[in-house]
């Protein structure tokens, strides 16, 4: 090889080497790295996030530093997240990785630059983050390792306030309403009567004989048989007596015939000498009117009403009155007598 040929070859080699070096230099200038912490001050044992970022062109393949347990001797890694890559419109990639870090040593800890070694070797330029500092504060007044493990503080006694229950009031009311709805639906589903008395004021119980006497008074005032409504007259009287018998003696009189009713009274202690005879006269006369088209005389109609009154009054259950009620009746009776005089 002559001298000129050697010189030309050397010039070409140097030129190519220069282009390569310039290319790597330009690529290195287009790659940036950074590190950032959420906070520079934490309590001892507290945790913050450390974010590493790498900005590079899309055509480069660079790797992150391998950090597993610690950042420094005093700063530990609790959790390592996966790499997150973001494509920008300008043909660049933003790659980042989050580290959850903590420290159990109080004081100011220096975090040296984090070097991207493999990327630095590939680009021929050192890629590293800026140095950082982390202040770890001990919130306890005194920590003496010589004392060893001690018991935790006992619970403090605090007074109870009714206001503490207010926050549970909507929940309790909601549960009560829900329980009421479920009970209502269940009763309806199984065909039971809903106990509405718990929501309404209980009305006074009217004795059976008072109901019967009131119904007889109404029938008497209507003068049904006097207006040729004899069948309706006897139906009203007998229905009134049958209802009275069911409530007073617990005999199913509404579903029984006259003979069956008479048989039912054989085992019942009925006060009044002619009570059953009076009842029998009314029922038999009513049967003749309903089924035999019998037309009773006016005296028979009046007798049926009189016997109905007698039967109710002679068989009614005597009310046990309190001393206050008897005293009030006596005073009222004396007042009426004084007015009449």
What would you say this structure looks like, in words?
- By secondary structure, the protein is an alpha+beta fold.
- About 45% of the residues lie in helices and about 15% in strands.
- The chain contains nine helices and eight strands.
- It has helices spanning about 5-30, 115-125, 170-190, 210-220, 230-250, 260-265, 275-290, 300-315, 325-340, and strands spanning about 30-35, 40-45, 45-55, 75-80, 85, 90-100, 105-110, 130-135.
- The strands form two sheets. Strands 1, 3, 4, 5 and 6 form a five-stranded antiparallel beta sheet that branches.
- Helix 5 packs across helix 7.
- It is rod-shaped and about 135 Å long.
Descriptive labels:
44% helix; 8 strands; 5-stranded antiparallel beta sheet; 3 domains; 15% strand; 9 helices; 3-stranded mixed beta sheet
Layout of strands and helices, then pairs:
Layout: H1 3-29, E1 32-37, E2 41-43, E3 47-57, E4 76-80, E5 84-87, E6 92-102, E7 107-111, H2 117-123, E8 132-137, H3 169-189, H4 208-222, H5 230-249, H6 258-264, H7 275-291, H8 298-315, H9 323-340
Parallel strand pairs: 2-8
Antiparallel strand pairs: 1-3, 3-6, 4-6, 5-6, 7-8
Helix pairs in contact: 4-5, 4-8, 5-7, 5-8, 7-8
How many individual β-strands?
Answer: 8
Helical proportion? 40-55%
Q: Describe the sheet with the most strands.
A: 5 strands, antiparallel
- Tell me the count of domains: 3
Mean pLDDT: 80
Low-confidence stretches: 13-28
Query: What is the count of helical runs?
Result: 9
Distance between the termini: 168 Å
Query: Helix and strand string, N-terminal first?
Result: HEEEEEEEHEHHHHHHH
**Which word captures the global form?**
rod-shaped
Strand content: 5-15%
**SS content category:** alpha+beta
Radius of gyration: 54 Å
């Amino acid at each position: 090889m002559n001298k000129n040929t050697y010189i030309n070859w050397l010039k070409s080699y140097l030129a190519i080497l220069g282009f390569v070096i310039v290319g790597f230099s330009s690529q290195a200038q287009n790659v940036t790295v950074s590190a950032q912490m959420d906070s520079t001050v934490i309590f001892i044992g507290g945790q913050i996030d450390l974010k590493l970022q790498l900005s590079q062109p899309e055509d480069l393949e660079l790797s992150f530093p391998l950090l597993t347990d610690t950042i420094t001797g005093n700063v530990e890694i609790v959790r390592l997240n996966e790499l997150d890559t973001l494509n920008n419109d300008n043909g660049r990639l933003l790659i980042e990785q989050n580290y959850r870090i903590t420290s159990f040593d109080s004081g100011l800890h220096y975090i040296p630059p984090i070097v991207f070694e493999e990327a630095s070797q590939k680009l021929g330029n050192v890629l590293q983050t800026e140095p950082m500092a982390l202040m770890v504060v001990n919130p306890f007044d005194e920590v003496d390792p010589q004392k060893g493990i001690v018991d935790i503080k006992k619970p403090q006694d605090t007074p109870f306030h009714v206001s503490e229950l207010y926050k549970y009031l909507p929940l309790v009311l909601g549960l009560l309403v829900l329980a009421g709805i479920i009970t209502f639906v269940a009763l309806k589903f199984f065909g039971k009567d809903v106990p509405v008395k718990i929501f309404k004021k209980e009305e006074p119980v009217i004795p059976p004989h008072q109901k019967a006497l009131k119904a007889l008074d109404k029938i008497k005032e209507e003068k049904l048989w006097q207006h040729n409504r004899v069948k309706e007259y006897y139906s009203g009287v007998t229905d009134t007596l049958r209802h009275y018998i069911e409530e007073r003696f617990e005999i199913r009189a509404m579903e029984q015939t006259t003979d069956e009713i008479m048989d039912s009274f054989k085992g019942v202690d009925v006060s009044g000498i002619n009570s059953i005879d009076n009842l029998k006269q009314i029922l038999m006369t009513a049967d003749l009117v309903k089924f035999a088209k019998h037309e009773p005389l006016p005296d028979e109609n009046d007798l049926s009403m009189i016997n109905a009154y007698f039967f109710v009054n002679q068989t009614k259950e005597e009310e046990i009155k309190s001393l206050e009620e008897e005293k009030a009746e006596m005073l009222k009776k004396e007042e009426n007598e004084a007015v009449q005089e």
